[in-house]
Structures
1.
Amino acid sequence: MDIHDFIRNYLLSTDHLRILLLLRTNAPHEWAMLDIVGQLYLPPENTQKVLASLEASGLVVSNPELGCFRYAPRSPELDRMVEAIAELDRERPVTLLNMIHSRSRDLQDFANAFKLRKEDDP
């Protein structure tokens, strides 16, 4: 897996990046969802969805009893990829953000290809 594959498969938005890097930087600290919301100024609904996505991807784990999350990649490869992402964020943050945003545009273009158009639409 290279950095482009990682972004395409795991970083669905800049919120994914921000939450992942916050949890990684503070590992092994466990964060309550509302603490993440307060730290990053994100909407709770979106934060909850992103955390569920990161957990399903094997990048974070939750403690359901406490309602907390922590960075815990399920494989050394994922940990290395997150380290590469963190380094890219430190050294070339604009490049990283452009990579994430271009991924979003590619998905939107793909979705738009399936929209039904009237016969007189181009």
2.
Amino acid sequence: MKLHPACAHLQPLLGKWRGEGSGDYPGIEPFTYSEEVTFGHVGKPFLSYSQRTRGADGLPLHAECGYWRPVPGVSEVERGVEVLIIQPSGIFELLTGALTLTHFGFVSTLSALKVIGAPTARRVDATERRVSVDGDVLRCEVSMAATGHPMSAHVEATLLRFA
């Protein structure tokens, strides 16, 4: 199936990625984890996204899924993107940002327009994500303001494309 033309600048994300990451946040002990991410498409103007992490002990830590939606950008080099992410912990993020094309792939900085929590979810006030693709290397960084703490780095991972 052909990638929708509106998603051409998101093409470097397509595939399955696997790697290692680390995390920290006020009030918790630093940790390491393994991560697997999949970006796919069905020929429509969006990419599907799923992510799973496991702790150093092999037990599941986190999961999330959603969609990356292209929006018109300001130039051929800078494009817009909307990202919708939902977590089974009851948190939904609606992020927007710029995606800057580079000679190696792209860099995208996303900020949450809204973070909505279910009544039983942990309080998260804001999130920011930075995603870059350099050939077959995907780097992800997530910062958040949660549980009364200001915006702080939370997790970062480096993943390699394996399919």
3.
Amino acid sequence: MNITERIKGILLSPKEEWQTIVGETTPIADLYKNYIILLAAIGPVASFIGMSLVGVSLPMGGTFRVPITTGITSAVVQYGLTLVSVYALAFIIDALAPIFSGEKNIDQALKLATYSYTPGWLVGVFALIPSLGIFGILGLYGLYLLYLGLPVLMKSPKEKSIGYTVAVIIAAIVIFVVIGAIS
């Protein structure tokens, strides 16, 4: 798997890319090593640079910067929790599969969680310049990717995809709130 081609495929032609992904037998360790570890680092690194080195301009003059040690600590914690959250989301996707007439398969669920996270990880680059953080909203494209991928990877009926997607999104929100509170 070429990471650049996978990113391009999942973002620009997701229906076709999910069909390719479903047939792949990528071990969990390889998925982490060749994809997750790399992309999950974008947000924490960019956030550290943006908040600790670039800083935020204040209206009354001056620039606020997070202390470097605090920035590094925050980035490391955020990165570690992101790595855990991908697997937690996959576990939830897998656990919910039978409820929505899908097939339990943790490997497929991890691929689904991983590749659905792609837009969110990529928009992390906007944290380099804190005032561009609003563009992080573009990461919501991952919800559409999740919706398209559920029937393909988890073999759930298309008519149950919306409910399945909503259930996964609610679980993901809980995960993100917990991660946000911890980091």
